[in-house]
Write a structure and sequence with these properties.
globular, 2 domains, Cathepsin D, subunit A, domain 1, 282 residues, 6-stranded antiparallel sheet, 6-stranded mixed beta barrel
């Protein structure tokens, strides 16, 4: 039989766990980018885009707002303080002159969540930061492959009726869906096997061409979740510049993500965006 002391202990334990959760509100743009209001060094108010493929932070040369209190030396600024929502993080490194997404003055990365589990909750437009993993009922585990400050996943691409495993960088700065690297596109004949819905040709100063093509992948499987008619881009032409495949912002937003503190496992479930039309690359 529980005593009053037992009940009080359980209540306090629950209260402590709840208090261990911190939130950061965000805005999702029409380009699928996450934007957070940030206060830097208690002086500069900036709109920063969340970039899951980096740990540090940066400001853009095309920013709309001033960043006069971030002091750079050789385009690097150390020991800055950044406030996102009510959460303050010290010793943040900023890089100067890095382009970012639409509507943003710069970027911040996963270093803000260092040593913590965190959730990207697209249903409620917020990050949730945890001292320990929350209830994972309804989620499925996806193995992460961390490389330096970047996170990769494996997933199945159904091409011409055959399953081909792909290795993808989680890339929240690119607005589209999937983007395949040159080698994968060539090895799997994407130019002939995917329905191509759009194409652009660009030339560099030497006259070499970069052809970007947008197509439709009939089926794509992440964990046990099957997706159909997925937006998939790839490059063709003389220049072979795309070395890494992207699982980009339009795909990321279709799930709610919980990342463990060690960045070895992500837990996912479909978000409210799971079945919405895919973003169109102009």
């Amino acid at each position: 039989m529980f005593t009053k002391l037992n009940i009080l202990f359980l209540f306090l334990s629950y209260f402590i766990v709840v208090q261990a959760q911190e939130t950061i509100p965000f805005r999702l743009t029409q380009y699928n980018n996450i934007i957070v209001k940030a206060l830097i060094n208690d002086k500069d108010s900036l709109d920063l885009m969340f970039q899951i493929a980096m740990a540090d932070a940066s400001i853009s040369p095309e920013r709309a707002r001033k960043a006069d209190h971030i002091i750079f030396k050789d385009e690097i600024s150390e020991n800055n303080t950044i406030q996102l929502g009510k959460i303050v993080t010290k010793n943040v490194r900023f890089f100067d002159n890095e382009l970012t997404g639409h509507e943003a003055d710069g970027k911040f990365g996963t270093g803000i969540f260092s040593g913590k589990a965190f959730k990207i909750d697209y249903d409620n437009n917020k990050f949730v930061i945890y001292d320990q993993l929350p209830d994972l009922k309804g989620y499925q585990a996806i193995k992460l492959y961390p490389e330096r400050d970047q996170l990769f996943i494996n997933a199945e691409n159904i091409i011409d009726g055959k399953s081909v495993e792909g290795h993808f960088l989680l890339q929240s700065g690119y607005s589209g869906g999937l983007l395949y690297n040159n080698q994968f596109a060539e090895d799997n004949g994407l130019d002939k096997k995917l329905e191509v819905t759009g194409e652009k040709t660009l030339k560099n100063s030497s006259g070499k061409s970069v052809i970007t093509k947008q197509g439709i992948l009939p089926k794509f499987k992440i964990g046990n979740i099957m997706m159909e008619n997925v937006s998939a881009g790839f490059f063709a032409g003389d220049l072979k510049t795309q070395k890494v495949s992207y699982f980009a912002a339009d795909m990321i937003r279709r799930f709610i993500w919980i990342f463990d503190a060690d960045r070895k496992t992500a837990y996912i479930k479909p978000s409210k965006y799971f079945s919405v039309p895919y973003y169109k690359i102009n």
